[in-house]
Structures are given as C-alpha cells and as structure tokens.
C-alpha cells in the first residue's frame, strides 16, 4: 500500500476540522482517494519501498520530511511479514521498464544484490568513510549496508539450564541429539535465505543442500524467524536459529531465554551479520530527492535510532554513540562474507531449496 506521510496527515486533519460542514459522502470519497495511494506527487516527493518494518522506518522517514526547508513527501510502500522483501523485489522487477520506486530500503541484503546484478540500481557516492567494511558496500557503489542484525541462537534457559550445555554453532542444527528440539525458519525468504546462500558459498552447493536436508529432517521448521524465537520462549523447543531483533523481543518480554552469538572459536567461521541496505533505482522518477534521502538515512544518527529501538540493530559506523543492548561485553568475531558472490545463481539455488522444504 502506498501512502504519503505528510499528505495523509494533512488530509485527515482537514477532515476532522471541517467535519460539521462536510457531508459524510464527501469525507468517505476523500478517504478513499488518500488511502488508495492516489495522492499527487511533485518533483520533491520520493517513493520508498521498505522491507524494514513500518513501525521502525516510519518515524525516520517522517523526520526526513520535517528536516527539509521545503515541502516534500515520502511515499512509502511496505509489504507483509516473511515474504515482504521478495514481494517488493518482484514488484521492482515487474516495474523495471517504468519504475515507480525511487529508493529501496531493504532490511537484509541478498535481494538488493539481485537487483544490482539485474542492472536496476544507480550508482551513488555514499557518505561513508573509506574504512567502511567491504562486505557492507557494493563493488560498483550501487548499494550500501548499515544497521545490521546478527544471526544468533536463542536458548530456553529452563530447558537447558547450564550455559555449558548451550549450543554454540549453527551446525548443531544437524546434530541428532537435538532432534525435534531445535528450530529454524524455512530458508526461502528473509535472512534465513541469505544465511544459507552465504553458507552455500562457503561449503559448496552440494554440501549445503545435504545439510539443509538433514536440518529439514532434524529440526522444527517454521515460517519465519519471529516464530522460531517465540517457539523457544514458549518452551516448544530448547533452542533455535533466529535474528537478534526477534531474540531481543522475547528477552525483553521477560521470557527465560539467552542469546548466543555462534561459531566464535578460531576454527569456526564467526557470526553472520546482515545489514539493512539502501539502493537508488536506476531511472528513478525522482532521482534528486532519492539521493538526498539516501544521504539522510546513511548516517550514524539513523543507526543510533535503530540501535535504541526494540530491534536493537547494530551500527556499522564507528561514530555511532549508542551501543545496542543485544551486544555482549566481549567482542564478536564476524563472518567474512562476499554477498555479491553469495547471490549468484539465486533462482536455481532457491528452486533446489524449495524442493527440500516443499513439505515443511
């Protein structure tokens, strides 16, 4: 659904103020126009497709509207949970000959790279320092990563009461001792799909598919990372693989859970972190406004806002002033990743994975 943050607010205020002198039919017609997305767009408007949850993205986009010294509107489109990134990317692909989207704000990275490989993204001079991690910025300057989440293990401390018994590696999803007592999201969407594309690049295609088949037989497979975190907090399983934001929500709600950053030993690959990404569409209808908004968002201040929120996202910038609550006191070894390589041959890879999880 498309909506303009300022224009909807302005029209609702007008309706409220003048209701006594306005017929119900007229008000209903105006509401229909507003909420169907039929709002006039000027050269200063900017259309954002956002896979980041509306509750987190909306206040930041609204702050951008207030920050400029001229009238501008952000027209946002958000999609549904679990398949939202894929849905938005498919819409961008459908609209490639007549783009409607100016800026794509993805809450992960793999499908942003897919758009890069399709040649649908514009180059941008991202306002980041020269030491920005290489896996957080594209080789051709078409996208940039910020405000990451990590792929972590969430453990129910009533079912596993000793930290020495906590699982410490993603690979333990394959271990028969955890059969039917661990969980993972179906690896077809979101960060779980990204995670296994990265592991395919590290392990090789056949080994990765074999491991996914073993996990399908060994673990409880759920629709999304949120459902995994909730299954663990409810005691349905002892532990699961999820994202830091979903794990933090369960912990903040007071459930008996702990978060483990996996694969920290020297012979292990490290914990995978998956950033938000920004990308401007090639031939965007409002390129000037899109570049301006991209620069506004790619700042330590935006990362701090996301770090302070309930999703506790982890800033990439060294200038960030707010350490997210999810990070432990000890430094984390992050997995070294080439996301551009991980996204190669996505369609055939996704088809193979879908075949394994067709009955899950």
Write the layout of secondary structure elements.
Layout (H helix, E strand, L loop, with lengths): L1 E3 H13 L6 H12 L10 E5 L3 H14 L6 E5 L5 H11 L8 E4 L3 H8 L25 E14 L25 E4 L4 H14 L1 H14 L1 E3 L2 H9 L5 E5 H9 L4 E4 L12 E8 L6 H11 L2 H9 L30 H4 L3 H11 L4
Parallel strand pairs: 2-3, 2-4, 6-7, 6-8
Antiparallel strand pairs: 1-3, 4-10, 5-8, 5-9, 5-10
Helix pairs in contact: 1-2, 6-7, 7-13, 8-9
Which of globular, elongated, flat, extended, rod-shaped describes the shape? globular
Q: Could you give the count of β-strands?
A: 10
> Which regions are unreliable across 5 or more consecutive residues at pLDDT < 50?
5-40
Distance between the termini: 30 Å
N-to-C order of helices and strands: EHHEHEHEHEEHHEHEHEEHHHH
Q: What is the CATH class designation of the largest domain?
A: Alpha Beta
Query: CATH superfamily of the largest domain, called what?
Result: Periplasmic binding protein-like II
CATH topology of the largest domain: D-Maltodextrin-Binding Protein, domain 2
User: Whole-number average pLDDT?
Assistant: 88
Note the total helix count: 13
Please state the structural category.
Answer: alpha/beta
Oligomer: single chain
What is the rounded Rg? 22 Å
Tally of individual domains: 2
Q: What characterizes the major β-sheet? A: 10 strands, mixed
In terms of DSSP E residues, the strand content is 15-25%
In the CATH hierarchy, the architecture of the largest domain is 3-Layer(aba) Sandwich
């Amino acid at each position: 659904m498309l909506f303009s943050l300022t224009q909807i607010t302005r029209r609702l205020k007008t309706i409220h103020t003048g209701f006594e002198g306005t017929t119900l039919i007229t008000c209903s017609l105006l509401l229909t126009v507003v909420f169907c997305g039929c709002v006039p767009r000027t050269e200063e408007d900017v259309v954002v497709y956002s896979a980041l949850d509306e509750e987190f993205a909306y206040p930041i986009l609204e702050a951008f509207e207030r920050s400029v010294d001229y009238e501008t509107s952000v027209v946002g489109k958000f999609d549904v949970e679990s398949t939202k990134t894929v849905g938005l990317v498919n819409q961008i692909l459908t609209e490639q000959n007549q783009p409607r989207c100016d800026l794509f704000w993805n809450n992960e990275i793999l499908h942003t790279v897919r758009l890069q490989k399709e040649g649908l993204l514009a180059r941008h001079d991202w306002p980041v320092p020269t030491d920005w991690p290489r896996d957080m910025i594209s080789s051709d300057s078409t996208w940039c990563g910020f405000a990451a989440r990590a792929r972590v293990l969430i453990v129910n401390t009533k079912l596993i009461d000793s930290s020495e018994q906590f699982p410490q590696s993603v690979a333990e999803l394959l271990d028969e001792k955890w059969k039917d007592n661990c969980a993972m999201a179906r690896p077809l969407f979101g960060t779980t799909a990204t995670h296994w594309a990265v592991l395919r690049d590290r392990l090789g295609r056949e080994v990765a598919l074999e491991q996914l088949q073993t996990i399908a037989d060994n673990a409880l497979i759920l629709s999304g990372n949120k459902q995994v975190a909730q299954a663990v907090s409810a005691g349905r399983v002892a532990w699961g693989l999820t994202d830091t934001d979903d794990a933090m929500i369960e912990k903040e709600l007071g459930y008996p859970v702990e978060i483990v950053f996996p694969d920290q030993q020297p012979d292990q690959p490290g914990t995978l972190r998956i950033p938000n990404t920004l990308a401007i569409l090639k031939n965007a209808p409002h390129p000037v406004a899109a570049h301006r908004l991209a620069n506004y968002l790619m700042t330590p201040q935006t990362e701090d806002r996301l770090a302070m929120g309930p999703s506790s996202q982890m800033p990439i910038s060294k200038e960030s002033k707010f350490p997210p609550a999810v990070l432990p006191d000890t430094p984390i070894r992050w997995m070294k990743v080439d996301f551009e390589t991980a996204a190669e041959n996505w369609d055939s890879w996704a088809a193979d994975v879908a075949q394994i999880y067709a009955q899950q």
